[in-house]
């Protein structure tokens, strides 16, 4: 009986800014979500790389210590480690790898020949094995004085706690952004109801029900949510891609990690995000508009 566009909501100048505001909210939420996902992936890499491992550090050779002495001490330590129950492998870190870690600080080719660079041994434990680190430390010190054992699991736990804290903050940011988006939709819907109050009263007089009037606001809210969500996701993807390109030129010498490994996300994740995030934004906008319209019509009009 009625035409769907009696209220002419598309002509409201104030409602034209809703997609931009929704896009801004979705942009921030998507960046927070991308950060949380990237941190989770980084934690998995840390666990794969550091889980079930130890690092043994032997003192470096000094001026009066020959290369043969260093090799002998290293072989002795490796033999003791391999004889320890629960240890699967023990491999000395090549000198070239240690030099590559020092080059960013000292410069290429500036490593002094008499610099006492310590010897590092990567130790892998058997799955589920537990090694008495204190006893292992005493055994190593008995054959190689000043040898030190570092449990990578301790550092891993600290890194994981830090990563989980970052994810928690990202979750709080997404929640706050979602609440802000809902508030924007509520404000815009109420403003539209107030602006078209006379038309709505006229529609009521000629028999229009609240559900019919609400559908007009719902359709606009859904469209604005979908459009704003899509714009926000695309801007967030462009931002993350730009950060990945910029970070590609930055390396972390101490850990030999590159920023793109942390910032980049798979194309599949972005495709899924581009499909579902705008849909979620549209559904949230639609649901918020419906609740706002129905509640306002019952209480005021």
Beta-sheet strand percentage? 5-15%
N-to-C CA distance:
21 Å
Shape: elongated
The ordered H/E elements are: HEHEHEHEHHHEEHH
Number of strands: 6
- Tell me the radius of gyration: 31 Å
Tally of distinct domains: 2
Question: Biggest sheet, in brief?
Answer: 4 strands, antiparallel
| Tally of alpha and pi helices | 9
Quaternary: single chain
Helix content: 55-70%
**Biggest sheet: strand arrangement:** 2-3-1-4
Structural class determined from secondary elements: alpha+beta
Low-confidence stretches are 249-263
**Arithmetic mean pLDDT:** 76
Structure description:
The protein has helices spanning 18-50, 67-83, 95-106, 133-143, 152-195, 197-205, 210-247, 260-263, 267-299, and strands at 53-58, 87-92, 119-125, 148-151, 251-252, 257-258. It folds into 2 domains: 9-48 and 156-299, no CATH class; 60-146, no CATH class. It has a 4-stranded antiparallel beta sheet. A two-stranded antiparallel sheet has the order 5-6. α1 packs across α7. The chain contains 9 helices and 6 strands. It is α+β, with helices and mostly antiparallel strands.
Keyphrases for this structure?
single chain, 301 residues, alpha+beta, 2 domains, four-stranded antiparallel β-sheet, elongated
């Amino acid at each position: 009986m009625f035409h769907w566009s009696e209220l002419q909501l598309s002509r409201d100048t104030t409602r034209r800014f809703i997609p931009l505001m929704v896009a801004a909210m979705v942009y921030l939420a998507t960046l927070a979500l991308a950060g949380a996902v990237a941190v989770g992936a980084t934690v998995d890499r840390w666990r794969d790389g550091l889980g079930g491992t130890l690092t043994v550090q032997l003192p470096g050779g000094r001026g009066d210590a020959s290369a043969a002495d260093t090799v002998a001490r290293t072989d002795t330590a490796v033999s003791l480690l391999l004889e320890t129950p629960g240890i699967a492998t023990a491999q000395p870190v090549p000198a070239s790898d240690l030099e590559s870690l020092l080059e960013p600080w000292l410069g290429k080719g500036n490593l002094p020949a008499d610099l006492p660079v310590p010897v590092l041994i990567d130790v892998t434990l058997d799955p589920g094995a537990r090694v008495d680190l204190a006893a292992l430390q005493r055994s190593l010190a008995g054959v190689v004085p000043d040898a030190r054992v570092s449990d990578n699991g301790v550092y891993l736990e600290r890194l994981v706690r830090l990563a989980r804290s970052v994810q928690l903050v990202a979750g709080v940011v997404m929640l706050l952004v979602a609440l802000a988006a809902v508030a924007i939709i509520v404000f815009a819907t109420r403003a539209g109801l107030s602006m078209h109050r006379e038309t709505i009263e006229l529609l009521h007089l000629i028999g229009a029900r609240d559900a019919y009037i609400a559908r007009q606001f719902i359709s606009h809210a859904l469209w604005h949510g979908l459009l704003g969500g899509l714009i926000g996701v695309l801007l967030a993807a462009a931002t993350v891609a730009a950060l990945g390109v910029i970070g590609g030129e930055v390396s972390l010498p101490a850990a030999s990690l590159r920023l793109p490994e942390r910032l980049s996300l798979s194309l599949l994740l972005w495709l899924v995000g581009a499909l579902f995030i705008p849909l979620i934004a549209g559904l949230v906008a639609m649901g918020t508009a419906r609740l706002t319209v129905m509640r306002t019509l019952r209480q005021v009009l």
